[in-house]
Amino acid sequence: MNKYSNFNNYIKEYPTEDGHFGPYGGSILPPELIDAFKEIDEAYQTICHSAKFINELRRIRREFQGRPTPVYHCERLSNKLGTSQIYLKREDLNHTGAHKLNHCMGEGLLATFMGKKKLIAETGAGQHGVALATAAAYFGLQCEIHMGEVDIAKQAPNVTRMKILGAKVIPVSSGLKTLKEAVDSAFEAYMHDYKDSIYCIGSVVGPHPFPLMVRDFQTVVGIEAREQFQEMTGLLPDAICACVGGGSNSIGLFVPFLADPVEIYGIEPLGRGPKIGDHAATMTFGSRGRLHGFDSYLLQDEKGQPLPVYSIASGLDYPGVGPEHANLKDLGRVHYEAVSDEEAMEAFFLLSRYEGIIPAIESAHALAGAIKMAREKRHASILVNLSGRGDKDLEYVVEHYGTGERFLK
After folding, report:
1. Do 323 and 188 share a structural domain?
2. 146 catalytically annotated
């Protein structure tokens, strides 16, 4: 028996009935929300085994989202870097431009099953907000998106898209005015309106059952990629990698490969460096803590309060991480590494110039991790989850980095 066979029954073992992945996860809620989350859990456990629900979700993915998304071989970029080969799972080609729609359409379908009238959520980079606004328009639901003022300024194109789709965007001006504060604000709004609304968390974080639900909806990425890669090459990749903020796109890619002889890498934002407030590398520098109703790794002070975080990627600047990632780190199955802003931006411009694909800055972190591997290894095949496209980032990138000539020398 090898180390990978220990994960043959992983999906059945994690999470437990009360939402734990080892010591992480759970559901730590104010009393007034306990019944609301039980209602969501009961509804999800009912419909996730329903052929009618599953077939409807498959139809939506095929006819509305444009799934399956392809796997693409970056031949020119790979040749520039050495002898290893980089492949991309093109989630940037998913409708709305990122992986987020995979779980948002599932959550919208769940909301209609429960008879809810409104979807409430937070967003950082805006991709989750756009995806949820899209789902709300599709299902005829109201939509309320909470977003930090810093991210609203950085991600103006996505804010416009949300509004055009009919969402109400709530600016959040407290604290650092980024993703953590947006989560706080959305959670508070849900507390006041849980009878008619459902809180659609944007990642594999939050109280149970959201880490389970979002994982289940996102594993379509890894299931497709595994089959597509084998069809293209006749083999499994040597390594797979994806960026990790809260961790939805990465869990979606990782889980279907857990029992395979494949090395798995989660890539975090090192930002400007290892000093407090200069990064959001939770798995690299964090410790066990509690945030937003669940236990996981957390960047925290001596009193257990979240530390300030930073990343050039708005979707990665979160002081916590999904509880399943924490468990996979402890189990030793996934390696977590961090790349800097500069490394991410080099990857951003290399992919743009050598392959004609402009990635989201979040996704550029995963690509930067793959580029590091490609420069160090010979004859390896590396599959990257390109979780989103970079349209939303262009104004910010050009303002701060120009057209990237210094990265292309």
Report:
1. no
2. no
